Amino acid sequence: MDHGWISVKVHPNAGKDVLVGVGPGRFEAWVKAKPMEGRANEALIGLLAKTLKIPFQALRLVKGRNGRHKVFRIVE
Predict the structure, then answer these.
(1) Where are the beta strands (DSSP E) in 1-76?
(2) What's the CA gap between 51 and 45, in Å, rounded?
(3) Which of 13, 54, 57, 70 is least buried, going by the fewest C-beta atoms within 10 A?
(4) 2-75, CATH topology level
(5) End-to-end CA distance of the chain
(6) Domain residue ranges in the chain
């Protein structure tokens, strides 16, 4: 079941992990992980799941695997 979409601008290699809402379904995130071998994406997914209180597996990265602007779909 599809529960919505999330758009995130991510800043990898930051000093701390922080997620800030900037509008409905829009976030800006800072993650400590470096953008190598998918580490920043994994850290971002973990941060989103923890903050939104949803399972890690419920987030699907559908756009922006290698860019700073990412789109996620929340599934059940």
Answers:
(1) 2-11, 18-23, 26-30, 59-63, 69-75
(2) 10
(3) 57
(4) Conserved Hypothetical Protein Mth637; Chain: A; (3.30.1200)
(5) 5
(6) 2-75
- Total residue count of the chain as it appears in this document: 76
* Separation between Cα atoms, residue 6 and residue 32, nearest integer Å: 21
**Residue matched to tokens 């529960």:** 3
| pLDDT of res. 73 | 96
User: Rounded to whole angstroms, how far apart are CA atoms 63 and 46?
Assistant: 17
pLDDT in tens, the chain (76 residues): 456 999 999 999 999 999 999 999 999 999 999 999 999 999 999 999 999 999 999 999 999 999 999 999 999 7
